[in-house]
Every structure is written in C-alpha cells, then in structure tokens.
Amino acid sequence: MKKATLQISFDSEKLGALKQYMAKKEASIETELDEVMQKLYEKNVPAAVREYIESREADDQTKSARPSRPAEEQKNAAEDEQ
C-alpha cells in the first residue's frame, strides 16, 4: 500500500508537552495518530468501499510476487546454465 503524508497545524507548546509526556510512556505520536486515522477511516468509509480497496491491495501484492523477468529471459537463463 502506498502511503500518503498528512500535514496538520498544532500549537507548538502543546506539541512539546505531548512529546514530553508520551516519551515518558514510551509512546509514539505517529503510532497514536495512525490508530486514530484508521478509526476515522473505518467510521466514515462504507464497508463496501473498504472491501474494494482491500481487494485491490491484495491484487497488487499478488502482482508484485510474480517474477519480474519475462518467461523468455528465464528460459534463456536456464539454457545458459546447462
């Protein structure tokens, strides 16, 4: 899945305090925000659309698992090894 970057504005003093206290808990802002975004996605995007997106991701993974060289090149490489 291709990731997108999201940029938001937040009060710098509050962000500093948030980083400080999350560090004490060994927590990550990025991880927390990722979880919040996932919940927003699940809440607002219809289940049918989510299923469609997931099926496309599965198709993309299947395509990337295929050999990157065309069959003819593989055949020639096998013949060269003999």
UniProtKB/TrEMBL annotation:
<dbReference type="Pfam" id="PF19598">
    <property type="entry name" value="DUF6103"/>
</dbReference>
<feature type="region of interest" description="Disordered">
    <location>
        <begin position="52"/>
        <end position="82"/>
    </location>
</feature>
<protein>
    <submittedName>
        <fullName>Uncharacterized protein</fullName>
    </submittedName>
</protein>
<dbReference type="InterPro" id="IPR046085">
    <property type="entry name" value="DUF6103"/>
</dbReference>
